[in-house]
Amino acid sequence: METKLRIRIAFPKGHVGRGKIALLEQIEKIGTISGAAKEMGMTYRRAWHLLETLQSVINEDVVETSVGGKKGGGARLTSVGKELVTLYREAEAEATKGAEPLLKKMDSLLKS
């Protein structure tokens, strides 16, 4: 199937979509905001802006940071951040599963 479903969750103060969730996943994987940003091909400033936006939407901290030093700083997801990623991915999977018959029909509309 070529056609894909992308979801965006609308909260009262903004939205959460695959880009912000992917950033959180990279932070969890790499352990730093700068490393996650680099991996995703964005500037640190852009990543930080997305995190600030996300935290204002959720009204909770989604990332904890530690100050650098000899061993360097770091970042990790808070329990809220982890839960947000899990719930988003569950919603995405369920929505895709439910839309699969329609997506297959849409695929048939594509020209070779």
CATH classification, class level: Mainly Alpha
What percent of residues adopt helix (DSSP H or I)?
55-70%
Order of adjacent strands in the largest pleated sheet:
1-2
Give the CATH topology. Arc Repressor Mutant, subunit A
User: How many strands, what sense, and barrel or not for the largest sheet?
Assistant: 2 strands, antiparallel
Please count the helical segments. 4
pLDDT averaged residue by residue: 93
Order of H and E elements: EEHHHEEH
Structural write-up:
With 112 residues, the protein is α+β, with helices and mostly antiparallel strands. 58% of the residues lie in helices and 12% in strands. It has one domain (9-103): Arc Repressor Mutant, subunit A (Orthogonal Bundle). The chain has helices spanning 18-30, 33-40, 44-58, 79-107, and strands spanning 9-11, 14-16, 63-66, 74-77. A two-stranded antiparallel ribbon has the order 1-2.
Layout of helices and strands:
Layout (H helix, E strand, L loop, with lengths): L8 E3 L2 E3 L1 H13 L2 H8 L3 H15 L4 E4 L7 E4 L1 H29 L5
Antiparallel strand pairs: 1-2, 3-4
Helix pairs in contact: 1-2, 1-4, 2-3
What structural keywords apply?
112 residues; alpha+beta; Arc Repressor Mutant, subunit A; two-stranded antiparallel ribbon; two-stranded antiparallel sheet; 4 helices; 58% helix
Short description:
The chain has a single domain (9-103), classed as Winged helix-like DNA-binding domain superfamily/Winged helix DNA-binding domain (Arc Repressor Mutant, subunit A). It has four helices and four strands, in the order E-E-H-H-H-E-E-H. The protein has helices at 18-30, 33-40, 44-58, 79-107, and strands spanning 9-11, 14-16, 63-66, 74-77.
